[in-house]
Amino acid sequence: MDPGTRTAPVKPRRASPTLEDVAALSGVSRSTVSRAINGGARVSAQTQAAIDAAIGELGFTPNRAARSLATSRADSIALVIPEPDGRVLVDPFFAMTLNGITESLKDTEVQLVLLIARQGEKEGQIIRYLRSGHVDGAIVVSHHKADALETQLADAPLPAVFIGRPWQDRDGLVFVDTDNRTGGLLAARHLMERGYRRIATVTGPADMTAAQDRTEGWRAGLAEAGLAPAGMESGQFTTEGGAAAAARLLDTNPDIDAIFAASDLMALGVLNVLRERGLSVPGDVALVGYDNHQLAASSTPGLTTVINPMIEMARRASEMLLQEIEEPGSRLEPAVYPPELVIRHSA
Predict the structure, then answer these.
(1) Which of 115, 261, 265, 346 is most buried by its number of CB atoms within 10 A?
(2) Is a pLDDT exceeding 50 seen at residue 11?
(3) Is residue 323 part of a domain?
(4) Global pTM?
(5) Where in the numbering of this chain does the HTH lacI-type domain appear (predicted)?
(6) Does residue 199 share a domain with residue 293?
């Protein structure tokens, strides 16, 4: 080469823009950028617009194939319901749970897999499916003390969120719930404020924390006024369970003047039995339920009940699960919603 000839310096090759570059330019965290790129879950429209603008300015291109290989994502989550399918199909609680979850997933590419306990199912079949890589996480609802899902999921690497307080208080168990104990307390206080003194209860199944907590709250409310329980019978969270429990209750305690039922479906069963025995509501016996299903407002008389924000709890559980999947080790805290009493004609 002629020493007198000059060559232009070679410019260093510009590195491809990264998620961190997009985050810095749009003024948000790296995890928020990741969520926005992968479906927009829990990202506001304003934030999404800022991220889209940064992506355009930087010329950032997400490598979805690399992401899939690196994360081994199934892009699906499971809703686990350890209940017979007959109950799942008729109880509004499960329809509202599905409503809340699907609402939270509508702006994502995540699919929902429904797992319902089957009669005669081999022990551990559900947990084996969950651990097999078919789903990225699980939401568990209506779990029972003996179904072992708490222990199995707490010890598994699969992210999981429970709707309803687990029996165990240990790391790895994240949940969303309403304050059922305070809800039972509100029901008892309301009945006492209306002048009722012979107050009984129809409780849910003893192997579910919701039933236990609502009963404890009811007992605490009576204790505040120095009242003893006028009777207590338990049953499943169904209309049939409530009716059977109410029949036993009235057989042994015919002078009760108020009943707190642990669910609205149970309350409808109680209402049917009271009518069959010629008792009016609230003239002879006042009645309070729990859940505030749509059927509580449409019953005759309208049912006084405690709100159980099922759709909102399901939506929140789904959001928490997606966050844990996207950001492992997020150390999520339980989300507990305060209860509220809705007063109608039954009390």
Answers:
(1) 261
(2) no
(3) yes
(4) 0.77
(5) 17-71
(6) yes
